[in-house]
């Protein structure tokens, strides 16, 4: 079936636009210019940008710059996009002209066409609502795109924080159940002093919550927006009080304490707050990588590895080895974390790549941030639901390894000294015999007394010095 087109005109001349499209000529040109990734804009970003257009219309109407009927039509069109409608009309590739002019015009054209049809007009004629004169009134790509990036990041924050909180909660619950489960500690991947599953897993929960606190701490920075700076932060062609009115409207729409920046030019030049968020997300990814590696080590086996935990089986592990089950969810989480680190590196490079009054790398910068946040959210949720919930502790294996660990010799330091304890550790390693047996044989402690010493050290973290 042949696709039908209408002809629209811009400053470069005439250009065909798909007849059914709500977007217009500048968007159509961008689609032809940027067949790069095949990925359209992030959904939260589309909604954030529509909220900006809505807030601008309300602020311009309040200032008497925009007629009430035109403002109402723009607001109605923006509300439809905010509600999730017409998202298929946002078709410009994530890698596009610098600063995001193409996406800004995509939004302007879709809203203008929706508003005009609602007012009895036709697509592509832009009467009485014009994309630039009315939908973009008092705005510029320079201030709407960085504001939309910040608003989209704010929209993603609760989902990411909830995912981290859920994982931390699972680790804390396991820690509470296993507070008395003794196991061998390991440093340098070598036997160390005894500890407990409870202590080990509680530390994972504490670390994840600290990561979440750091991410949350960036929220106030993101709430300071440069909307109203218009071109180059000058405030050109904006109504008196526009920046404050638009910020107040966005605060109402988002539920966040949005406020106009004291220096709107700085919020166009600098992506410092976005970089701070990326840094915090990166820190979370690093910790999740480490914890995922621990889960895979602790679950290694079942016969030749640590085998201290058992992860729920979610799929067969091998196409050739029967019965094999792998820690696939934490393997997946590892892979996502590595990709997030790559996105953070890209964000850092693009943050410093701005020049003078504008950072033109914003489309790809925003995309990298959105991907990092979404991927980490989804991967954390999946790992928690599929592998962390249902995790079992192999208490017998923990006990076996704890009581055969050479590291138990450390418990003798306060009674016989480091040098003598070293000799016992070396004998245990050479002979393969448990430290407790050697200690009992030498008459230092009975096996039962040594077991009590192990429990005291592991659970209480304290050894009373023998008189």
UniProtKB/TrEMBL annotation:
GO cellular component: cytosol
Pfam families found in the cross-reference section: FumaraseC_C, Lyase_1
A GO molecular function held by the record: aspartate ammonia-lyase activity
Residue span(s) of domain Fumarase C C-terminal: 408-454
Keyword Ribosomal protein set for record: no
Domain Fumarate lyase N-terminal: 13-342
Keywords of the record: Lyase
PROSITE patterns from the UniProt entry: FUMARATE_LYASES
Gene Ontology BP, a term: tricarboxylic acid cycle
InterPro entries associated with the record: Aspartate_Ammonia-Lyase (IPR051546), Fumarase/histidase_N (IPR024083), Fumarase_C_C (IPR018951), Fumarate_lyase_CS (IPR020557), Fumarate_lyase_fam (IPR000362), Fumarate_lyase_N (IPR022761), L-Aspartase-like (IPR008948)
NCBIfam families named in the record: PRK12273.1
Classification via PANTHER family: ASPARTATE AMMONIA-LYASE (PTHR42696)
Protein name, entry field: Aspartate ammonia-lyase
Source organism per UniProt: Candidatus Muproteobacteria bacterium RIFCSPHIGHO2_01_FULL_65_16
Gene coding for it: aspA
